[in-house]
């Protein structure tokens, strides 16, 4: 497999940010995951850039290794190629050209590595069951181990098991093409935002319900917490994406719920602190506020310069679907 890295070409592109991308194309061979790691070390691309994939497949283990590297770097994935358009050279911006491509067989595992995943309707996405051309006892044993590794990889990438079931329905010799609508239904294609994922964590003296989601604007987590000593509180982790100063200093912080119907001004009681790539917001809640949030259909946090500012940072209210019963259970425990 070949790798190409493109970065800003003009002073204006560098000033605007973005204009970074990686193209992966060709057959995947054993060891390509090691080559890709070395490629990333040499090129040192920033996080949150797009990886464009055009491949008919190849080595499964190398594909999963590349997918994990893509996920660790917070890259997104798309099927096709994205190249400089030398026929349309500008003085300040150099146009890019997208060409639809193919993502087949093992290449689909690379695609799953993207935190956000895009699919053009003119591209092709094809799956089939993994198998050996010349079965033997050794190959059958290897196939079983590899099948388990694929299942674990798909789970680690937060892809529903239904995707693996779809692949298993096609024999190793037959490729099944999958449409963009099917891929979106399977949550394989996310476009610019992943569904919110909810979970519960319980410790000796505290428990919390956490929702998290990836989007074009970064990764975000919201948590409603109950502790025996402190009662209810709310926490949010907002990926800074270069806006550390604004997130730490903007003058208005609001918890939002039910879209934006509910706004709770928490500016005067909000603690803010940098935590790795995130800015953390921590707010003590009253029992009434906790009841509002645990009954809400969506929860987020909004950070603005003032009440009149139309642009905001933070986390747009994320749906509590899948976490509603957890939130209500948390309030029930804390309000006893």
TrEMBL record:
Gene3D superfamilies: 2-enoyl-CoA Hydratase, Chain A, domain 1 (3.90.226.10). This is Uncharacterized protein. It comes from Rhizobium mayense.
């Amino acid at each position: 497999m070949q790798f190409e890295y493109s970065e800003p070409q003009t002073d204006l592109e560098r000033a605007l940010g973005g204009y970074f991308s990686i193209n992966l194309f060709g057959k995947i061979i054993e060891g390509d995951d090691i080559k890709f790691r070395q490629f990333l070390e040499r090129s040192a691309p920033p996080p949150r850039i797009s990886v464009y994939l055009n491949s008919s497949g190849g080595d499964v283990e190398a594909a999963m290794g590349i997918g994990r590297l893509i996920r660790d770097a917070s890259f997104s994935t798309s099927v096709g190629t994205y190249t400089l358009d030398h026929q349309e050279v500008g003085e300040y911006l150099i146009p890019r050209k997208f060409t639809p491509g193919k993502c087949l067989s093992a290449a689909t595992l690379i695609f799953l590595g993207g935190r956000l995943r895009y699919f053009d309707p003119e591209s092709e996405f094809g799956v089939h069951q993994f198998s050996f051309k010349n079965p033997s006892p050794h190959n059958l044993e290897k196939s079983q181990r590899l099948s388990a590794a694929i299942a674990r990889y798909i789970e680690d990438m937060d892809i529903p098991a239904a995707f693996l079931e779809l692949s298993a329905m096609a024999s190793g010799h037959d490729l099944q093409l999958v449409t963009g609508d099917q891929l979106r239904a399977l949550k394989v294609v996310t476009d610019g935002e992943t569904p919110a994922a909810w979970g519960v964590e319980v410790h000796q003296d505290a428990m919390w319900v956490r929702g998290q989601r990836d989007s074009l604007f970064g990764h975000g987590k919201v948590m409603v917490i109950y502790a025996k000593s402190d009662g209810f509180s709310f926490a949010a982790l907002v990926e800074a994406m270069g806006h550390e100063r604004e997130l730490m200093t903007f003058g208005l912080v609001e918890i939002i719920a039910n879209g934006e119907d509910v706004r709770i001004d928490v500016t005067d009681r909000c603690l803010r602190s940098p935590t790795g790539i995130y800015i953390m917001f921590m707010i003590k809640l009253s029992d009434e506020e906790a009841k509002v949030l645990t009954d809400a259909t969506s929860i987020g946090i909004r950070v603005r310069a003032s009440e009149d500012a139309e642009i905001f940072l933070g986390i747009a209210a994320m749906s509590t679907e899948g976490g509603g019963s957890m939130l209500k259970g948390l309030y029930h425990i804390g309000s006893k």
